[in-house]
Amino acid sequence: MADKLTPERRSWNMSRIRGKNTKPELLVRRLLHAKGYRYRLHGRSGTSRLPGNPDLVFAGRRKVIFVNGCFWHFHDCRVGQHAPKANAEFWAAKRSRTRERDAGQRRQLEDAGWEVLTVWECELKDGSALEDHLVRFLESGTDRPAS
Fold it and tell me: 82 or 33: whose pLDDT is higher?
């Protein structure tokens, strides 16, 4: 059985978790770039910041994509529903706040005229379904042909 993590070690582990340029995000970026789509990164649209700092911004289409980890953003899949046993109340509250914050940021973006897509880490397992989903989202409501 694994030893219990010290608070210092847990803090060190948590400090290594990235919010940008994660493996799931890079996979989505590579897939879309290969399909000819161009985008801005991490919530930049011109000089202003968008609510929630979306991972990919398609300013000309007024569309944004978030690539979320299932655990951290409390997705309804098996991984997202895993509840840590250590410090359970803290994690439940933290993940609930994250879910509420995500919903608020999505509302702000939609109210400002942006279309929002959230890609969940668990969706990356089926590459062709993911590609179809992304292209449908990006091409919906536009007269431009796919690049």
Answer: 33
**Which residue, 129, 120, 126, 14, is CA-closest to 69?**
120
| DSSP states of 31-56 | HHHHTT---EETTEETTEEPTT--SE
| Host H or E run for residue 8 | helix 7-15
Q: pLDDT by residue (tens digit) across 62-84?
A: 999 999 988 777 787 887 778 87
What is the DSSP-derived secondary structure letter of residue 123? G
Give the other-Cβ count within 10 Å of 6's Cβ.
Answer: 9
Q: Where do the domains of the chain lie, and which CATH numbers do they carry?
A: 20-139 (3.40.960.10)
H/E stretch holding 95 reads helix 88-111
- Contacts of residue 101, Cβ cutoff 8 Å, sequence gap at least 6: 52
